[in-house]
Amino acid sequence: MVESPYRLRHRRLMDTAPATASGDPGHGGSNGMPIMVSILVVVIICTLFYCVYCWRWRKRNAVKRAHLERLRPLSNSDLPVMDLSTIAAATNGFSKENKLGEGGFGPVYRGVLDGGAEIAVKRLSARSRQGAAEFRNEVELIAKLQHRNLVRLLGCCVDKDEKMLVYEYLPNRSLDAFLFGTRKTAHLDWKMRQSIVVGIARGLLYLHEDSCLKIVHRDLKASNVLLDNKMNPKISDFGMAMIFEDEEIEVINTGHVVGTYGYMAPEYAMGGVFSVKSDVYSFGVLVLEILSGQRNGAMYLQEHQHTLIQDAWRMWSEDKAAEFMDASLAGSYAKEEAWRCYHAGLLCVQESPELRPTMSSVVLMLIGDQAQLPAPEQPPLFASPKKAPASDQSSLAVRSDTTSKTHSVNDVSITMIQPR
Known about the structure:
Layout: H1 5-71, H2 84-90, E1 99-102, E2 107-112, E3 118-123, H3 132-142, E4 153-159, E5 162-168, H4 175-179, H5 184-187, H6 190-210, E6 215-216, E7 225-227, E8 233-235, E9 242-243, E10 252-253, H7 266-271, E11 273-274, H8 276-292, H9 298-304, H10 308-317, H11 321-324, H12 335-348, H13 359-367, E12 397-400, E13 405-408
Antiparallel strand pairs: 1-2, 2-3, 3-5, 4-5, 6-9, 7-8, 10-11, 12-13
């Protein structure tokens, strides 16, 4: 029996339909496998990134917690611990209008507490080279020191990542602004300069001999001497200070050097050896700067090819002391007093630490008029730093260790954390 064309076409369609249906799953599966593998790879990579992020976050917070834990015992000292909210309110939220300046520690702000007391707040910057060790060092040291020629620390603040020191506010700020700034001619007469020299000497004498601790400041310079409303000097910034815990030990040899090049004693700058005589050397440099009104820094070295202290020695030796004195004084000073300060300054910057006087002897030299002073020897000859920039306005800060040496041409001290 012959089938009709219609029925024949229908049967062919029925025979091919199962084959086509059976081929669909295979085709879909071959396209879906790469997609599933790609999704799985992306998930695995994201999971790995998340795990790495969590690990680094925990590690970073563990370091922060360790730093904060080391700072917790501050509450056991006599120093008040202040709230962050109180300091923020006093400084108007750390506003630009309240900012006094910025140093190696971080920015400094002026503030007014509820009772009307003025304060200066040093806020540790996240980019600061100084860390928890220096912060703690300054808090523990200065809280135990009380002297009219040392800056008074009123409190501190430790709140999460914030670390701040709260000082008495000194309206005339630092000595370098008067010595090397535009205000010196109008304010720093001879009597004021002599008073500042004697005040700094008394403050150092207290640190070395009269306090409950034997302390070497290690960073005495014009910018670390603050002036109150009566122009009384106060030594500040004890972040680098070192305590001589054993009274029998007079000299410490350290592998690291911190401080400011123009004020550093040669045995410390070259060999890492420091003692109270290192501070005496820095004091001598400061005295010569106060007398001359010039900074013993890179600019002076660039212009004269030798240091300020070498010029001071040459003029003293050639009996030209008057030429060394600051021209803004216009000769208005008591020569006997000025020459005694000059002489004492040269004795302090002698190369050999054994030849330098103690601070008790220095104070007697400055306030006495009967003592015969020994003849000073020539100060050290420091090599000129390579390529000292002409634009430098300050002393070269230097940090060195057994493997490297770094120079900075600003007024900021470079600090390295080290055990004692």
